[in-house]
Amino acid sequence: MAGLNLRFTEEELDSLRSRAEAEGKSMQAFAHDAVITAMNEHARLFNEAADHVLKASEELNRRLA
Predict the structure, then answer these.
(1) Range list of β-strands (E), the chain
(2) String of b and e for 17-34 (b: at least 16 CB within 10 Å)?
(3) pTM for the full model?
(4) At a CB cut-off of 8 Å and minimum separation 6, what does 16 contact?
(5) pLDDT above 90 for 2
(6) Cα–Cα distances in Å, from 30 out to 5, 20, 42?
(7) What is the Cα Rg of the chain in Å?
(8) Separation in Å, CA 8 to CA 13, 15, 21, 39, 56
(9) Ranges of each domain in the chain
(10) Which end of the chain has fewer CB atoms < 10 Å from its terminal CB, N or C?
């Protein structure tokens, strides 16, 4: 499995440590889950925007075809 090194300030690390402990996870597991969640949310927002644009331009695209 490939690895990735991230750098955090001491303040960020303290916050990460606290949040991970609150959820009963290791810092690594918490950070991993946060990154995956962010990627999924980005994809969801992109898909929603694309759907909106397609619906908004549906009539125009039909007329241009």
Answers:
(1) none
(2) eeebeeeeeeeeebbeee
(3) 0.70
(4) 8, 27, 30, 31
(5) no
(6) 15, 6, 18
(7) 20
(8) 6, 10, 17, 20, 42
(9) 29-65
(10) N
Residue 56: phi, psi to the nearest 5? -65, -30
The pLDDT score that the predictor gives to residue 4 is 87
Q: Is the predicted pLDDT of residue 28 greater than 90, yes or no?
A: yes
Task: Classify 2 as helix, strand or coil.
Answer: coil
Confidence of residue 61 (pLDDT cuts 50, 70, 90): confident
Residues comprising the chain, all counted: 65
Picking from 9, 2, 7, 37, the residue whose alpha carbon sits closest to that of residue 23 is 37
Would you give the DSSP letter of residue 22? Answer: H
Q: Tokens 């925007």, residue?
A: 49
